[in-house]
Design goal:
This protein has 4 helices and no strands. By secondary structure, it is an all-alpha fold. It has one domain: Acid-sensing ion channel domain (Helix Hairpins), CATH 1.10.287.820. The model has no long low-confidence stretch (mean pLDDT 80).
Length: 116
């Protein structure tokens, strides 16, 4: 499996796959909403376009449109390789149905004391 070391292709100081996916999502939202909220980092744009700040006033709710575009963005189209230095954990959740406490604690002194 290939990975990507930190480079200057990102708006973030160090490359991570998560940051790359965020930047890709922001780019898609900019394309849809045609603006960027003032508190977002400005991505290194690959297209020449004047970037406006999203407004939120009585006439327009561009910030809400931008946030909706962020939620609808498709990360499958992003070309984000895993980062070489990051750690990925796989999570597994197991559960079983336990019998009632009175059946669990048959003949156990500690259970008898806990129930009193």
């Amino acid at each position: 499996m290939f990975c990507l070391l930190s480079d200057s292709k990102s708006i973030f100081l160090n490359y991570t796959q998560k940051a790359c996916l965020f930047e890709c999502t922001v780019r898609q939202a900019i394309d849809k909403a045609d603006c960027l909220p003032w508190d977002y980092p400005i991505p290194k744009l690959s297209w020449s376009k004047d970037l406006r700040v999203c407004l939120n006033n009585l006439d327009s709710n561009e910030i809400q449109a931008f946030n909706a575009a962020m939620d609808e963005a498709d990360t499958k189209v992003c070309d984000c390789m895993p980062d070489c230095e990051g750690v990925t954990y796989d999570i597994q959740v197991d559960r079983i149905k336990l019998p009632p406490p009175n059946e669990l604690c048959k003949n156990e002194v500690s259970c008898l004391l806990a129930q009193n």
